[in-house]
Amino acid sequence: MNSFKTVAKVSDVGAGRVKVVEVEGKRIALCNLDGTIYAIDDLCTHDNGPLGEGEIFNGQIECPRHGARFDVKTGKVTCLPAVMPVKTYEVKVEGTEVKIKS
Ligand code: FES
């Protein structure tokens, strides 16, 4: 997919919360960081943990399985045991709709 696609309503992703959506067979975690929505794969690069079930704090999301952390904006690892970054997606908000490009 090379164009933006509506995946959720802005109101679906509350401040500091995560919402997982499925887009073309891929699970993507929408993360609301201080009112801005970012999108990352719902798949921890350590051992495929469900990142979308993790908590967000200090701009990072923590994997609920073994505690790896990733920068929500960049996908970079900020805490082991993961070493590879998680994929991020471009997000655009239009009106009440959240759109991502994947
Ligand atoms: S699967 Fe995420 S830290 Fe291990």
CATH class: Mainly Beta
Total strands: the figure is 10
CA radius of gyration: 12 Å
CATH fold-level topology: Rieske Iron-sulfur Protein
Mean pLDDT, to the nearest integer, reads 95
Major beta sheet summary: 6 strands, antiparallel
What is the helix tally? 0
Strand content: over 45%
Helix content range of the residues, please? under 10%
What is the distance, rounded to the nearest whole angstrom, between the alpha carbons of the first and last residues?
6 Å
Order of helices and strands, N to C? EEEEEEEEEE
> Can you list the ligands bound to this structure?
FE2/S2 (inorganic) cluster
Backbone structural class: mainly beta
Structure explained in plain terms:
The structure is a single chain. The protein is mostly beta strands and 102 residues long. It has a single domain, classed as Rieske [2Fe-2S] iron-sulphur domain (Rieske Iron-sulfur Protein), CATH 2.102.10. It is built from no helices and ten strands. It has a six-stranded antiparallel beta sheet with strand order 1-10-9-4-3-2, with no helix packed on it. Strands 5-6-7-8 form a four-stranded antiparallel beta sheet, with no helix packed on it. Strand 3 and strand 4 form a beta hairpin. FE2/S2 (inorganic) cluster binds next to loops.
